[in-house]
Amino acid sequence: MVKAWAAKHITAIKVMLHGGALLPLCWLAWQTFSQQLGGDPVQYLTHFTGKGALNLLFVTLLISPAAKWIKWRFLLQTRRLLGLWVLAYALIHVAIFWLLDLAGRIDLFVEEVIKRPYITLGLVALLLLMALGVTSANRIRRKMGRNWQKLHNWVYLVALLVPIHYYWSVKSAVLEPSIYILIAAFLLLLRRHKLMSHLPSKVKAKVA
Amino acid sequence: MTKKILSSDITPESLYLNRRNIIKASGLIAGSAAVSPVAHAGIFGLFADEVVVPEQAVYQPKPLTIAKKVANNLTEVLTPESKVTSHNNFYEFGTNKTDPIENSKAFNPEPWSITIDGEVEKPRTFSMDDILKNHPIEERIYRLRCVEAWSMVIPWLGFSLADLIKKVNPTSKAKYVAFQTLYDPKQMPGQASRLGGGIPFPYVEGLTIAEAMHPLSLLSVGLYGKTLPAQNGAPIRLVVPWKYGFKSIKSIVKITLTEKEPPTTWQALAPNEYGFFANVNPQVDHPRWSQATERRIADGFRAERIDTLMFNGYGDEVASLYKGMDLRKFY
Description:
The structure holds 2 protein chains of 2 kinds. By secondary structure, chain A is mainly alpha-helical. Chain A contains 12 helices and no strands. The longest helix of chain A is centred in the N-terminal third of the chain and has 29 residues, at 41-69. Chain A is globular and about 50 Å long. Chain B is an alpha+beta fold. Chain B contains 9 helices and 15 strands. In chain B, strands 3, 6, 7, 10, 11, 12, 14 and 15 form an 8-stranded mixed beta sheet that branches. In chain B, strands 5-4-13-8-9 form a 5-stranded mixed beta sheet. In chain B, strands 1-2 form a two-stranded antiparallel sheet. Chain B starts with 12 loop residues before the first helix and ends in a 13-residue tail after the last helix. The A-B interface holds A 38-43, 100-103, 105, 108, 111-112, 115-118, 168-169, 171-175 and B 44, 46, 82-84, 86-87, 91, 95, 97-98, 147-148, 150, 195, 197-199, 269-270, 285, 288-290, 292-293, 295, 297, 301-305.
């Protein structure tokens, strides 16, 4: 019953997901304008959007295992919109860091990327997400053929890099980032067969 | 390289006195309001259930009489009181910057005493009342530079640490001064947390005797004209302006003079990241981030990024303490 309704109203589900992804940003804007962000608003904005991107990434990666599990294959259609929201949050995160935290200074940005390993990781993840984003249109997907899936498998690396980026950025209190790393490991574990099949055969022999 | 004063840059006194009266008035209201305790259960049950945090802070800062305003040579704008008291690293009350003001509401620093012992001729326990009676309170405006690369400018109230140490007559063996924060999980919910925010308690810090006796080393009992709020380290804390903020230990209950270098919390936790000296130094980066610049939390929405000064701008006064020392090795 529910499944039949959901399959028929996939557009409604997509609209709801768009709303769900947009709502935290509206909340954040409201908090910003009513000055509820504490003593260091820029840090709050950076952390909020960074964690938002990571949470959304995990939701995106949960879609296919969940769709297979409950046999709702049509849910796979929601992955692109969620993935693009991950990119949007990541771009806002980096824009806040660069424009507000570093005052838009290019020299400081370059220095930070080089000097801080966790920012290097974050930037690699962002570049990968951007590559996935710009190739997400149907037309480009068709043109790329089999290479499209190859490129988009890099999202699994992003899923590892981002929680490590988070873990590495904190002074102590590593509990929360550790939980994120565990979730990433779990999401990758669900795909162990797929990931194994992409490993070079020599490595595979060793792992086995 | 110390910058010179421009009095126009300091918050006008009328403004700040006015703010003081408003807060005094609200303090009165808070005092008479019923304190309704609510059990404060943190995320993942980090805080033990028995810790009860009331809606209103049980302790409200009181006005302090300032005996002397020390001429300062800062050109920077003061960090507003609301930011100084709401953006804190005080893991005893949680690890987020906004946790201490929320989770310290059950904290009562009255009565309080400090024990000074170790390599001294006259070990003693001072009550807070004794301390306030015997030390004229000075106002000193200092920069505070956090190791996380943000900073503030704060009008502290207090007196030289040296004045207190002289009262117990250090012996010739006294080479270091160790400090300890209160350990009381019933009042400090962060300590009750099973995971403790990743640091061991009680928090401990230390200075060399020369650093401790330096006139800039301040024992602070207040800020912005009043006694310290709980989240800023009530009722008495250290302020060492040329070192990263984590050296400026809060809510001190014990000072011990020692012959050997005492253990300090962050150094014990990550010795490759935090040293015993922890002098502000733009040339020596933290392994995971640069220390060349800092974000100054002032009155604007954005914290401006400014260059970090050697010894946080107090080089003229303190550089001689470290003559001939390799500051890359002794970071």
